[in-house]
Input
Amino acid sequence: MVQLPARPDPSARGALAWLGDLVFSTDPAQRRCLTVLTLTAIVYGVSIAIMAYGAAEGIFALHQVQLLGAACALAALVFYGLIRSGWNRRCAEPTLAFPQALTAQTLVAGAYAITGPVHAGVMILLPLVMTFAMFDMAARHARILMVYTVALMGAVMWERSHALPQVYVPTLEAIYFVLVATVMPAVSQLSAMIRTMRHRVKTQKVELERALAHIQQMATHDDLTGLANRRHMLTLLNDHALRHARGGPAFYVAMADLDHFKQVNDTYGHAVGDEALCTFARQALLQLRNTDIIGRWGGEEFLIMMPETPPGDPNVGVERLRLALGAAIVNAQHPDLRVAFSTGLSRYRSGEAVGDTIERADRALYAAKSAGRNRTVAL
Output
C-alpha cells in the first residue's frame, strides 16, 4: 500500500509565516536588507566554526578566535537592530552596504592576522565581501572600500611578516599583497560596471513601462478628448453586461450628439469645433458621476454608460451636464458661442446583446433630434 505524504499542518505553516514576519519584517525592502544580512551572518558563522575547529586542533589560539567570534556576532546584531528598527531608512543606502562592507573587511583582516599557517585562504573572503556589496553601494563608496581594504591588508601583512616571519613569510606576504592590490581594484571596477548595467536596465524598464502605458492609452482612448474610444467603450459595456448576468447592477446607455456641430465647424473653423468637443468631454467628466463612463463614439457623438442606482433617474446627470455645457465658454475669442446636445437613452435588458442596447439608444437619439434637439428621449 502506497502511503501518501502527510499534508502540511496549516497552523504550523501560519506559525512559521508569523515567525518569518517577526524576524525579517513584512516590508519587502526591509526584508531584502535583512535577508542579505542573514547571508552575511551565515558566512560569519561558518568562518568562525572553521576557526573554532582549528583552535580545537591547536592550530589557532582559542582566545583570539573567541574575540573574533564575539566581534562578528556583535556586528551582525548591531546591523540587525539598525535595519529591523527602521533606522536604516534615514540613510541614502538603506541596505547599509557600505558600513557593513567596511566592518566585514575589517573582520576578514582580523581573521587573516590570527589564522597563522592557513591565513592565505582567508583572502578569498575579500572579493566575496565586495560581491555582496556591489549591487547596493554607490560608486564612491566602492572606491573607498577598495582603497581601505588594500591599505588595511597591506598594514596587516606588513605587521604579521615582522611579528611572525616564520609563519607570515615576508616574500610570500609581498606576493599576497600584490594579488590583493590587483584583484580588489578589478572587483571594484567590475562592481561599477554591474551597477551601471543595473541602472541602465532599471531606466530601460521605466521607459518601457511608460511606453506601454502610452500605447495602452492610445489604444483605449481618443487622442483629442482623452475619453475612452469606441473599441474600449464596447469592451467596458460587454464587461458590465457580464457583471449584470452574474447578479451585478443593470445599466443605461446614453447616446449624445452635439447639436448643429457641422454649423460650428463651417462658421468658426475646425479648431473651434475641436474645442467644442473637448469642452463637452471636460464638462461631462465634471458633471457625471464617478461611476459613469463616457467615451467618444465617433465624430461629434459620445456614448455614456451609467450603472443603475434605483430609485435614481439616470437622466439627472445628463440634464446637469446639459445645463453646465450651456453655460460653458467654448472659445475665448467667441464668447457668445454655446453648444448643446441631444441624447438618446436606453436601459440594458438582461440577456440581450450590447449592440441592441446601443442601437435602441441611437434610435432614441434620432427621435430627440426630430423633436427639436437639446433634449433626452428614452426608449
User: Anything to note?
Assistant: Residues 256 and 343 are 4 Å apart (CA to CA). The first helix runs from residue 10 to 24. Confidence is low (pLDDT under 50) at residues 1-5.
